[in-house]
Amino acid sequence: MIIRFLKVLWEWLFGIRGYLSFRVFDGSLSQMQEIALKQKLLHGKAKKYSCKTCGEIFWAARPTPTCKRISCFFAYRMKLEKGVS
What region does 12 belong to: left with phi over 0, alpha with psi -120 to 50, or beta? Predict the structure, then answer.
């Protein structure tokens, strides 16, 4: 259990997920600049995703199964690690 937790913590601290800070895309200049910067840095196109844990809609430049919340990330990854072990 502790090893699973440490693996998930390591992934949380050092994994690049490419989240964008807005929930609704309204086409403003600041959002367009943020999207362009993230796409350039992460080499991915921003898309809308749904969290596998809470169902919240979020935007990210890389495919990711969970939203920004640490509780969603840990709940999803701990379940996934439990199934692997």
Answer: alpha
Start-to-end C-alpha separation, the chain: 10
Q: In the predicted model, is pLDDT for residue 85 greater than 60?
A: no
Is pTM beyond 0.70? Reply is no
| Partners of 47 in beta bridges | 60
Can you tell me the distance from the alpha carbon of 7 to that of 49, in angstroms, rounded to the nearest whole number?
A: 24
Q: Which of 36, 44, 52, 35 is nearest to 16 (CA)?
A: 44
Residues 6+ apart with CB under 8 A from 52: 65, 66, 72, 76
**Domain-by-domain residue ranges, the chain?**
2-84
For the residues 24-50, what does the mean pLDDT come to? 78
Rg of the chain (C-alpha set):
14
